[in-house]
Amino acid sequence: MTSRVLVTGSGGYLGRQLVEALAASSERPELIVAMDLREPPSAQRLPGVVYAQGDIRSADLQALMQQHRIDQVVHLAAIVTPPKGSDRQLEYEVDVLGTRRLLEACVASGVTQVVISSSGAAYGYHADNPAWLKESDPVRGNEEFAYAWHKRLVEEMLADYRQRHPALQQTVLRVGTILGERVNNQITALFEKPRILVLRGAASPFVFIWDQDVVGIIQHALRTRQAGIFNVAGDGALGLRELAARMGKPCLVLPPLLLQIGLAIGHKLGLTRYGPEQLRFLRYRPVLDNQRLKTELGYRPRKSSAEVFELWWASRQRAPAAGPEAAP
Fold first, then answer.
1. Is residue 72 part of a domain?
2. Helix (H, G, I), strand (E, B) or coil at 104
3. InterPro entries, from UniProt (predicted)?
4. Which of 67, 161, 235, 318 is most solvent-facing, going by the fewest CB within 10 Å?
5. Residue span of the structural domain in which 293 resides
């Protein structure tokens, strides 16, 4: 692989795995630059990888790209699960304005391809979503969910850049819920409860993608330089009742209105960070059709939704999970 690759968000759960995979590949890029807000410990540094500490919102991005003659960029930097002290403005600055800064730097530096980690959440949580969402369906991320709204705004920005800057090839990955042996996030927290919350009348299907498949898909996109928009999910979907059965757990079935009232009261009293809008998140899960991933990008996920869930659950039984990563 004769290319010079910059990975943003390289210190995150997925970013570290991607950098390791690129460095170990028989088709290793000519140069790998791993950029993150935090400087990695010396024990985590890989030989031959250039580590750059920087903020995605910084004006230094262009200089970094030009200094290393970057040809391809993988953009993973985003706030998926907001940390304590985060607020909506900070998340907007990182997710949306940071991506705009990155695209500006790519165009100014002559980068030929950017691989963007978007999300199935960009489609939004809506009652009229089709049973299986395709890439041709509109992105309607709900404003009440910062992550979904920001992914929608980023996708609208990307569409504009495709028109104005066609020389910058885009590979946009709308990623489903990532699972792996060490994943622990707001989605897996739903499965950790003694009883699995099920909304009456809602199937709430989930599509999962193995973290190693996500890494493989990004490597494949860099190697083939294939542009386009692709849903990233394993084959099949599992509803909450089926997930509960696989874990041997009972279901707690609640009417949607009761849960909505409970969330409203709990949020007002400070007992939960989630408000009544969370009902949409649980009720109208976006279910991703992965045909284009397999036929156009040419990558077939190695694990189905069911297989990667079983992998996660088996590993969770053995040891506590670690390393947050989510793509709701």
1. yes
2. helix
3. Epimerase_deHydtase, Lipid_A_modif_metabolic_enz, NAD(P)-bd_dom_sf
4. 318
5. 4-179+208-235+287-304
In a domain, 318, yes or no: no
CA angle 63/18/297 to nearest 5° reads: 95
Amino acid identity at 273: R
User: What's the total number of domains in the chain?
Assistant: 1
Which pLDDT belongs to residue 327?
Answer: 44
Between CA 246 and CA 304 the distance in angstroms is: 15
Question: pLDDT by residue (tens digit) across 118-138?
Answer: 999 999 999 999 999 999 999
Residue 111: half-sphere exposure toward Cβ, Cα within 13 Å: 31
- Give a yes or no: residue 39 inside a domain: yes
Plot region of 270 (φ>0 → left; ψ -120 to 50 → alpha; else → beta): left
Q: How far apart are CA 288 and CA 207, in angstroms?
A: 7
Are the CB atoms for 9 and 36 separated by under 8 Å? yes
Beta strand pairing status for 208-210 and 177-179?
Answer: parallel
206 touches 188 (CB < 8 A): no
- Report the CATH number that the domain containing residue 212 is assigned in CATH: 3.40.50.720
Q: 299 in the Ramachandran plot: left (φ > 0), alpha (ψ -120 to 50) or beta?
A: beta
Q: Against a cut of 0.90, is the pTM above it?
A: yes
